[in-house]
Amino acid sequence: MDLPFDTSEYTNRQERLFAQLPESSILIIPTNDRKIRSNDVVYPFRPNSYMLYLCGWKEDEGVFVAHNQSGNIESILFVPPRDTKKEIWEGIRIGVDGAKSWPASNASSIENFESEILKMIGQFDNVFTILGVSNSIDNIAKEIEGIKDPRPIIDPMRRVKSSREIQYMREAAEIGSQAHKFAMANATPEIGEWEIQSSVEGHFMNCKSRWSYPSIVGGGENGTILHYNTNQSVVKDGDLVLVDAGCEVQGYASDITRTWPVNGKFTEPQREIYELVLKAELAGIEACQNESSWVSIHTATSEILAAGLIELGILDCTLEEAIGDPVEFNGPYRNFFMHGTGHFLGLDVHDVGGGRQGDDDKGPILEPGMILTVEPGLYFSSWRTDIIIPERYSGIGIRIEDDILITDEGPVVLSSSCPKEISEIEDIVGSGI
Ligand SMILES: [Mn+2]
After folding, report:
1. Among residues 255, 281, 348, 426, which one is catalytic?
2. CA of 255 relative to ligand 1 center, distance in Å
3. Rounded to whole angstroms, what are the CA distances from 304 to 124, 258, 339, 367?
4. H or E element in which residue 219 lies
5. How much is the pLDDT for 377?
6. Known catalytic residue: 311?
7. What is the 3-state secondary structure (H, E, C) of 67-136?
8. How far is the CA of 24 from the centre of ligand 1 (A)?
9. In terms of C-beta density within 10 A (0-12 exposed, 13-18 middle, 19 or more buried), how is residue 252 classed?
10. Ligand 1 centroid distance, CA of 66 (Å)
């Protein structure tokens, strides 16, 4: 058996979920479909995060079904059966017998799924499933009235990590940190963005890991494009490079961004913006306190960035005017910092359970075991015509992102071994170490 958690951790999650479901509920959790990349080549398969969370099933077909009809939780894991002809091509499957040791009360062939589920659901008042994950489940769901979404119950559970989950996320953050460090050490002017990507992702693979999202490697002005990931340009001498890359351990993500001068020396304008973003990032991390609100982190970074933009002469207004409405954050500082300060992190890189519900909501209250990113940035795209970009900072894009664990004793930076102080960065870039 190859499960990242003890069976009891999965059954405990299932029990906590069912404790919040009404009587006579059935839960159907599909894994992701395989997706065609080209003709008969599929994209590398990634199991659905809810499937990983509740049952740990990793093969590319499977449905976890659980119900509380008898008062206890009974569950069936539907899996692809053993099949020699297919196994010759695709590898040996766990099969129905093998799946019996997974955290479900029983296992059955997925070939029986449709007929079994149609027989079962009639007996329940409440059918919970997640739509948009699996075509076959979506098709079956069309036949059922009043399907309910279990995510509003599961997501707050996923938000708080167990000690074992934290351990995997520490590993992912450490591999990610070392990957960034390795890329810095091995960079020189005129390096290709793709070569930096290769350093980072090569390190992931060396550590038996993979990226948790496509790596962003943006040299110079490409660093101002928030989701740039073509990574096909050369990084010129004197330019910064923004690297936003993270990896997975047992499905748990890290998400780290560093921005550094490819020649190992910040110019004055680069340094001014970098120091400001770093100051905002440190303030954001400091705001990651037990019982603080989600929004307080964004307030902390926003106040520093807005004040800094005024100080540098980029904005000419009061701090209040720069930030705008203290709930909407719609002032002119948003011209240069146009994204959120962070997001929860876990089985999904933009993990579930985050954000605000409605305008007045301050977002989730932080508690020990939550893990989130803090990632302020400032971007000055030279080509923008909607605002005036100051010449001194034109073409600069800087973001700094770390992964933070909330504890009773204050924030713990899981990615702390990734250099971010100016002196550390200048020492390591191009050093070959
Ligand atoms: Mn992020």
Report:
1. 255
2. 5
3. 54, 19, 15, 24
4. strand 216-219
5. 98
6. no
7. ECCCCCCEEEEEECCCCHHHHHHHCCCCHHHHHCCCCCCEEEEHHHHHHHHHHHHCCCCEEEECCCCCHH
8. 39
9. buried
10. 33
Residue-level pLDDT at 145: 87
Taking the model in full, what pTM does it have? 0.96
The phi and psi torsions of 305 (rounded to 5 degrees) equal -65, -45
Dihedral sign computed on CA atoms, order 54, 60, 66, 72: negative
Q: Please, where are the H alpha helices in 314-384? A: 319-323
Q: Is the pLDDT of residue 284 over 70?
A: yes
- pLDDT digit string, tens, across residues 124-174: 999 999 999 999 999 999 988 899 999 999 999 999 999 999 999 999 999
Q: Which of 16, 227, 325, 391 is catalytic?
A: 227
Catalytic: 359? Answer: no
Domains 7-157 and 163-428 share a fold: no
* pLDDT > 70 in the chain, percent: 99
Do the beta carbons of residue 402 and residue 359 sit within 8 Å?
no
Provide the residue ranges of all domains of the chain, joining segments of one domain with +: 7-157, 163-428
Q: Provide the residues around ligand 1 (an ion) whose CB is within 5 A.
A: 255, 373
Long-range contacts at 311-318 (CB < 8 A, ≥ 24 apart): 312/272, 312/273, 312/276, 312/393, 313/390, 314/390, 314/393
> Which CATH number is 7-157 given?
3.40.350.10
Residue 255 annotated in active site = yes
Topology of domain 163-428, CATH? Creatine Amidinohydrolase (3.90.230)
Tokens representing residue 240 in the block? 């910064």
Given the residues 375, 402, 403, 426, select the one marked as catalytic: 375
Separation of CA 403 and ligand 1 centre (Å):
9
